[in-house]
Amino acid sequence: MTDESAETSGTNRRTFLKRASIAAAVPTAAAVLGATLPGTAFAAGPAAGLPDYAPVPSGSFGPALNEDGYFVGQIKGNLYWVTDGSYQAMFLTTRDGVVLVDAPPTIGHNLKRAIDKVTEANGRPSTVTHLVYSHSHADHIGAASIFGKDVTIVGHGETRRLLRLDGDVNRPAPSVTFTDRYTLRVGGETLELAHHGANHSPDNIFIYAPAYATLMVVDVIYPGWVPFRNLAVSVDIPAWIKAHDIAMKYPWTTLVGGHLGRLGVRADGDLQKQYVNDLMASTRAASASVDPTPYFEKYGPTGNGWAITKTYFDAVTEEAARPIIEKYIGLLGGADVFTYDNAFTMYESLRIDAGELGPFGIKP
Predict the structure, then answer these.
(1) Which residues contact 364 (CB under 8 A, 6 or more apart)?
(2) The whole model's pTM is what?
(3) Does 246 lie in the same domain as 97?
(4) Is residue 218 part of a domain?
(5) What are residue 211's DSSP bridge partners?
(6) Is the same domain home to 110 and 231?
(7) Dmax over Cα atoms in the chain, in whole Å?
(8) Is residue 364 predicted with pLDDT exceeding 90?
(9) How are the residues of the chain apportioned to helix, strand and coil, as percentages rounded to the nearest 5?
(10) Which of 12, 15, 63, 359 could form a disulfide with 292 if both were Cys (CB 3.0 to 4.6 A apart)?
């Protein structure tokens, strides 16, 4: 590929991502207005059969993206954040260079553009000297390689182990690791890193900037939105739920959640805790109220055990999700998109983690 074609390809991709972030709001606006917006066209094909969802609350959205498809803003002092509307990163400008936390591939080289823009304005060095990994997942650190081999990468020891197993050249393993806590000091700035056990992933850490009362913890709290499907596809659901309480014990005023388009405030943490608690209570109530008998009678004689569990579990999930969707539409984005998936995962966790087995308990 020539330099010209590579640049064209990168420009086209940035243009596509920006248009995609804008287009995501078009169906919502059209539904509210009851008409097709001027200048929009919808091609026939697979999209014609896609479902409609409730409008996203206006408070769920973050700031508008620039022409390159990203937004960079100051949190406070020398601490900044970057988003493409889907993912987020955070960085500190110091007198010795930049400390970057996470490198999401969908933001990619826009991370460099954002850092250059900020450091040109504040007169600090633009070189990324340190890169902190929140955890090992590629969707959050898959652009790490663009910062070269001289950057010092900091992460949990489990992150190093997992990345060495993965062998992904775009995610070099950390050279500096820790087990429980680590204080990173660079050029007069400080980040406090802590591992409080598994939650979303085995290695997911809390990154706190004490001078700026800002906490970054990824894939736990989703400001303005319900959690991603299946309770953030977390490896340990009880620990993921507990991570909300751990996060709220930090004295932060600003939260960088790693996803979507805006920062969080304390009320966002309280609201998601309420959503999770309501979902748990609704799931317990559904498990107690849905009669398993018809499912055993229908599929038991055929010997189709999977049909029993699928239909019964689906019935419990639907019963659990319905009141939660009704309550949180208008409060959290995607309440009708992922609450069913979240209810199913909550039900499974209550069964296998909490031992609330219902009709699958100890046989009398």
Answers:
(1) none
(2) 0.86
(3) yes
(4) yes
(5) none
(6) yes
(7) 76
(8) no
(9) 45, 15, 40
(10) 359
